[in-house]
Automatic annotation (TrEMBL):
<keyword id="KW-0255">Endonuclease</keyword>
<feature type="binding site">
    <location>
        <position position="269"/>
    </location>
    <ligand>
        <name>Zn(2+) 2</name>
    </ligand>
</feature>
<feature type="binding site">
    <location>
        <position position="65"/>
    </location>
    <ligand>
        <name>Zn(2+) 1</name>
    </ligand>
</feature>
<keyword id="KW-0540">Nuclease</keyword>
<keyword id="KW-0862">Zinc</keyword>
<comment type="subunit">
    <text>Homodimer.</text>
</comment>
<dbReference type="InterPro" id="IPR001279">
    <property type="entry name" value="Metallo-B-lactamas"/>
</dbReference>
<keyword id="KW-0819">tRNA processing</keyword>
<comment type="similarity">
    <text>Belongs to the RNase Z family.</text>
</comment>
<keyword id="KW-0479">Metal-binding</keyword>
<feature type="binding site">
    <location>
        <position position="63"/>
    </location>
    <ligand>
        <name>Zn(2+) 1</name>
    </ligand>
</feature>
<feature type="binding site">
    <location>
        <position position="143"/>
    </location>
    <ligand>
        <name>Zn(2+) 1</name>
    </ligand>
</feature>
<feature type="binding site">
    <location>
        <position position="67"/>
    </location>
    <ligand>
        <name>Zn(2+) 2</name>
    </ligand>
</feature>
<dbReference type="GO" id="GO:0042781">
    <property type="term" value="F:3'-tRNA processing endoribonuclease activity"/>
</dbReference>
<feature type="binding site">
    <location>
        <position position="68"/>
    </location>
    <ligand>
        <name>Zn(2+) 2</name>
    </ligand>
</feature>
<protein>
    <recommendedName>
        <fullName>Ribonuclease Z</fullName>
        <ecNumber>3.1.26.11</ecNumber>
    </recommendedName>
</protein>
<dbReference type="InterPro" id="IPR036866">
    <property type="entry name" value="RibonucZ/Hydroxyglut_hydro"/>
</dbReference>
Length: 318
């Protein structure tokens, strides 16, 4: 059975707290495991979450500030130690290659050859996902060091309409042929098209946005996302500080989600200046600008990707 969910391994910002570990986000997607921004302690958080190195197929780093990458050495060495045999792709800003190499070889260990590096550069990079059931794009954000957000997209599909198939006598192997060829000849000799018997099913989309000020890429990444995982470092009253440090407030993150028609907004990367009592304020400020589902995550939370939605084909007028 396919599983599509976010596992939160850490949700703090620059400084971890007693209740929030440094960053770490695992997106499980139909047998693939995309680990974003492993900070310190990610290995142990994976153990708490029941995640193994063998679950990982991607390692994606948004930028090379410590809270987003200091867990890389442990993850790489765990991949080697556990003998992971399948390929693990690694995406990171090309401008930070020197930091990647330091992290990748931070200590003595028996190395692994399964990691394939895919550095990103420019305003946007389409990564090579091979035969994976999704595309992965990196877009440059606005931060003090070069930083990228990531967007995973599933291709659009179709949902077959049983009543329309039955009305045209299309059943059994003919249904598969209709899906593959786009048209078949029905038992009565009529040509039946896929369009007549199906509706478009939009592919699911997930966006991951970390340290950044508001910029066009934030909106491009969020556009139409079913799940938007986005930093919410500051409360709205601290917007001048957010602007100075090139981060987002709860309200700004929510406004980007509203502009993009996001279905489920996930807030994370909270500054250590706020305590547990402030969480309700983050939610209120986000809800003031976004009317959809909002989750302010905690470590080890699991957030399912919203179920697919079908676009219903308008019925012809009688």
């Amino acid at each position: 059975m396919s599983v599509r969910e976010l596992i939160v391994l850490g949700s703090a910002s620059a400084v971890p707290t007693k209740t929030r570990n440094h960053n770490g986000y695992l997106l499980r997607w139909d047998g693939h495991g995309l680990l974003f921004d492993p900070g310190e302690g990610t290995q142990r958080q994976m153990t708490h979450a029941g995640v193994t190195a063998s679950d990982l197929t991607w390692l994606c780093v948004t930028h090379f500030h410590g809270d987003h990458c200091l867990g890389v050495p442990g993850i790489v060495q765990r991949i080697a130690r556990d003998g992971v045999a399948h390929r693990v792709d690694a995406a990171y800003p090309e401008s930070g290659t020197v930091y990647w190499r330091r992290l990748r070889h931070a200590a003595a260990f028996h190395d692994t050859e399964v990691i394939r590096e895919q550095p990103v550069s420019g305003e946007a990079t389409r990564l090579d996902t091979g035969d994976a059931p999704f595309t992965l794009t990196a877009r440059r954000l606005d931060h003090y060091v070069e930083a990228y957000g990531y967007r995973l997209e599933e291709p659009d599909g179709v949902t077959m309409l049983p009543a329309e198939l039955a009305a045209r006598g299309v059943r059994g192997p003919l249904v598969r042929r209709l899906q593959e060829d786009g048209a078949v000849t029905a038992p009565d000799g009529r040509t039946v098209t896929l369009e007549e018997c199906s509706v478009r099913r939009p592919g699911q989309k997930v966006a991951f946005v970390m340290d950044t000020g508001l910029c066009p890429a934030v909106y491009e990444l969020a556009d139409g996302a079913d799940l938007l995982i986005i930093e919410s470092t500051f409360l709205d009253e601290d917007e001048p500080l957010a602007l100075e440090r090139k981060h987002l407030t709860a309200g700004q993150a929510a406004a980007a989600a509203a502009a993009g028609g996001v279905r489920h907004l996930v807030l994370t990367h909270l500054s250590e200046r706020y305590g547990d009592a402030d969480e309700e304020r983050f939610l209120r400020q986000a809800a003031a600008r976004f009317s959809g589902e909002i989750t302010l995550v905690h470590d080890l939370d699991r957030v399912p990707v919203p179920r697919r939605r079908a676009v219903v084909r308008p019925r012809p007028a009688e």
